[in-house]
Amino acid sequence: MPDRGALHHVELWVPDLARAEASFGWLLADLGWTEHQRWSAGVSWKLGATYVVVEQSPALTGPHDRMKAGLNHLALHAGTREDVDRLTGVAQRNGWRLMFADGHPFAGGADHYAAFLENEDGFEIELVADFPVP
């Protein structure tokens, strides 16, 4: 039974399901998520009791903008610093662009090793190293 108040799921409405599945799918699978559900307009991946959905909804009214009210980014535990580095390299070949390159991998602060990535549709993922920097 999950902890009371724990995150249950996140649903992201996307303008292009195939593009979203390509950019999110490999990353989530690499981090241990497994495909959970699939239907004509969407797909979800699950890790433990939490799942992430990408859906191309006919009710979508505009593009995602992380700089406006709403979701700014998802931050995911990515393992070691080496895991973050490896995922950052692979991500850039799978539809993600490294953000804040001038501060990478410490763009979140001197004691926060992470990669900030943005896909073609403007969704941001932060891959966080689980271990503090010495």
- Give the overall shape, derived from the CA principal axes: globular
Structural class: alpha/beta
- Give helix % range: 10-25%
Return the string of H and E elements. Answer: EHEEEEHEEE
Main sheet summary:
4 strands, mixed
Q: Could you name the ranges where pLDDT drops below 50 across 5 or more consecutive residues? A: none
Please report the first level of CATH classification, the CATH class: Alpha Beta
Whole-number count of domains: 1
Rounded average pLDDT: 95
Report on this model:
By secondary structure, the chain is α/β, with parallel strands linked by helices. The chain contains two helices and eight strands; from the N terminus they run E-H-E-E-E-E-H-E-E-E. The strands form two sheets. The protein has a four-stranded mixed sheet, covered by helices on one side. A hairpin with a 2-residue loop joins strand 2 and strand 3. The longest helix has 14 residues, at 17-30. The chain starts with 8 loop residues before the first strand and ends in a 5-residue tail after the last strand.
Give a concise summary.
By secondary structure, this protein is α/β, with parallel strands linked by helices. The chain has 2 helices and 8 strands. 21% of the residues are buried.
